[in-house]
Write a structure and sequence with these properties.
4-stranded antiparallel sheet; 10 strands; 35% helix; Rossmann fold; alpha/beta; binds magnesium ion; 10 helices; binds adenosine-5'-triphosphate
């Protein structure tokens, strides 16, 4: 079976009305592994993730030029937007729990996709919660409201939901901004487990997190890609680019 989960971005330019958020971005994201994206505020990281799953199109006044290919297929040509979204799990900075039970939060997307058999849903819910390292903490109270969980647990519930439709690509946007360091470490372990199964795009404002987790690291600044390289090289004493050096060493940003 060919490896799935590769992304090719070609000359992507995104404008919000007259503000340029991404300026001719081209990237090759290989299948599997963790692709870390770092960069200061407003560098276009979130816009890039929203372009990949095409949620950007629902924002007012946005223009998108360029192409994005997933497994060689131009995403613009995918007519069923839900097919695309099923292939991409998204995790945002703050947990966005639905006002439903823990079980129903995770079963939500599979049900929309037409899965209703109890045994199948049970299996998906358990698998997703296990993958998100939350199962042991919630298995005895799956009927409780998801919103009653702690912040760190809710973020893991969000990850379980993103995994429930078995995506080939998992995007995380600053997932640790509102969770404690212990939860951050647990989720980092989860990502290391998952990276053999799917492509993980990890947007992070913590450069040390990129250093710990990224196989490749992409540094963005002001809507442009400054450098992409092996993480080790990006964080070395000589990454080959002064701006990269300054950013990862905290000179700015
Ligand atoms: N909905 C929007 N309308 C107008 N401008 C926007 C919108 N969303 C983002 N922008 C602008 O586009 C640029 C890129 O924003 P984006 O959110 O992608 O950056 P980011 O790298 O994710 O930043 P942060 O680290 O703060 O999350 C910024 O200048 C931002 O102000
Ligand atoms: Mg952002």
């Amino acid at each position: 079976m060919p490896e799935t989960g590769s992304i090719e971005i070609k000359d992507l330019t995104v404008r919000y009305r007259n503000k340029i958020a991404l300026d001719g971005v081209s990237l090759s994201i290989p299948a599997k592994g963790i692709y870390a994206i770092i960069g200061p505020a407003n560098s276009g990281k979130t816009t890039l993730l929203k372009s990949i799953n095409r949620t950007i199109e629902s924002e007012a006044g946005v223009s998108v030029k360029g192409q994005i290919f997933i497994d060689g297929r131009n995403t613009k040509r995918i007519r069923d937007i839900y097919e695309l979204r099923r292939r991409i799990g998204m995790v945002f900075p703050l947990p966005v729990g639905l006002p439903l039970s823990i079980y129903d939060n995770v079963a939500y997307a599979p049900r929309i996709a037409g899965k209703h058999a109890r045994s199948e849903l049970d299996e998906i819910v358990e698998r997703s919660l296990r993958q998100a390292a939350l199962w042991d903490e919630v298995k005895d109270r799956l009927k409780s409201l998801g919103t009653m969980l702690s912040g760190g647990q809710q973020q893991r519930l969000t990850i379980a939901r993103a995994l429930s439709h078995d995506p080939e690509i998992l995007c995380l946007d600053e997932f640790s901004i509102a969770v404690d360091p212990v939860t951050t470490m647990r989720i980092e372990d989860v990502l290391v487990e998952l990276k053999n199964k799917m492509t993980i795009i990890l947007v992070t404002n913590l450069v040390q997190q990129a250093r710990r987790l990224g196989d490749l690291t992409c540094f963005m600044n002001m809507g442009k890609v400054v450098q992409v390289d092996e993480t080790e090289k990006m964080f070395s004493d000589n990454p080959g680019n002064q701006l990269t050096y300054d950013y990862v060493h905290g000179v700015f940003g």
